[in-house]
């Protein structure tokens, strides 16, 4: 299951285990760069870096998102 690393990273992030969260998010992004959840993983990765005081690394991740076009919009349901 592709988004498993995303959910593992989220769990570590909520448990205040930033190193484990970073590892999980980075692993997912590397293995599945085109997966929909990879964009959200990048945003969460930047947040973890920022929260632990590593603002420069957070900026690098955010710059990568901008250069890559950022998160994909969610499709709208039509009635």
Describe this structure in words.
- The protein has four helices and no strands.
- It is mainly alpha-helical.
- The radius of gyration is 13 Å and the shape is flat.
Descriptive keywords:
single chain, 79 residues, mainly alpha, 4 helices
Structural class: mainly alpha
Helix count?
4
Can you tell me the overall shape?
flat
Spatial gap, N to C terminus: 31 Å
CA-based gyration radius: 13 Å
Q: In what range is the share of β-strand residues?
A: under 5%
Low-pLDDT residue intervals, each spanning 5 or more residues? 70-76
Helix content: 55-70%
Number of strands: 0
> Overall mean pLDDT score?
86
Biggest sheet architecture:
none
SSE run: HHHH
Q: Secondary-structure map with pairings?
A:
Elements: H1 4-14, H2 18-31, H3 36-51, H4 55-67
What's the gist of this structure?
The protein has 79 residues and is mainly alpha-helical.
